[in-house]
Amino acid sequence: MEDPATPPTAAALARLEAEVTTCRACPRLVAWREQVAVERRAAFRDEEYWARPVPGFGDPEARVVIVGLAPAAHGANRTGRMFTGDRSGTFLYAALWRTGFANQPTSVSRDDGLVLRGAWITAPVRCAPPANKPTPAERDRCRPWLDRELALLPAVRVFVALGQFGYQVLCGLLGVAPRPRFAHGAEVAAPGGRTVVCSYHVSQQNTFTGRLTEPMFDAVLLRARELAGLGADVSE
Fold first, then answer.
1. First to last CA, the chain
2. Are 76 and 84 a contacting pair, CB within 8 Å?
3. Residue 136 sits in which domain range?
4. Model confidence over 85-109: pLDDT tens digits?
5. What is the pTM of this model?
6. 186-206 as b/e, with b when 16 or more CB fall inside 10 Å?
7. Tens digits of per-residue pLDDT, 135-150?
8. 128 within domain boundaries
9. At 106, which CATH number?
10. Looking at the domain assignment, is residue 235 inside a domain?
């Protein structure tokens, strides 16, 4: 039974989360996420893995949505929260804290006290894929979850696309056509007065090589705040 004090948007998102986390629509992804949870990485051998589809996370009144690719096998597939427990998340959440979207700079577990303000984090694919590469069929099968999720976030004005995969899916959902070429920092107008802001993905492949630096990513998030009408003061 739902708590009558729970805001309608939060209640609807919770119902969607319950559906997402029980999905078994993609046999390859189900097998992989569960295999990883059994074999585990040595550093996490004593932990119980989430090993289910990972729901979105954040502020139900978000004005900015951050869209990645898919859960990492030993990150979100282990912890059950997007970008939590891996190096990509370390980079992302520190930036969200610096730019006023998060109450703390770290994200290590679902119950670590992290709270997002004005932001929601999600992905087009909800299960960890082998080699971080979902197939087109898996992407398309998972797409309705993101479509339904975004429909439950009516305050959103800005979408931050982390990488080309998320950008392409977002443009399809939002009706952006023709789709401009992806480029870090690019801003793309979407129907309804919304905007997609592009960024290189926060993967180690980009952050460890210097292709994506902290100042570069902070600039994208601060621009997202500005476009969303959240103001420039991030000190609170």
1. 35
2. yes
3. 8-228
4. 999 999 999 999 999 999 999 999 9
5. 0.95
6. eebebeeebbbbbbbbbbeeb
7. 999 999 999 999 999 9
8. yes
9. 3.40.470.10
10. no
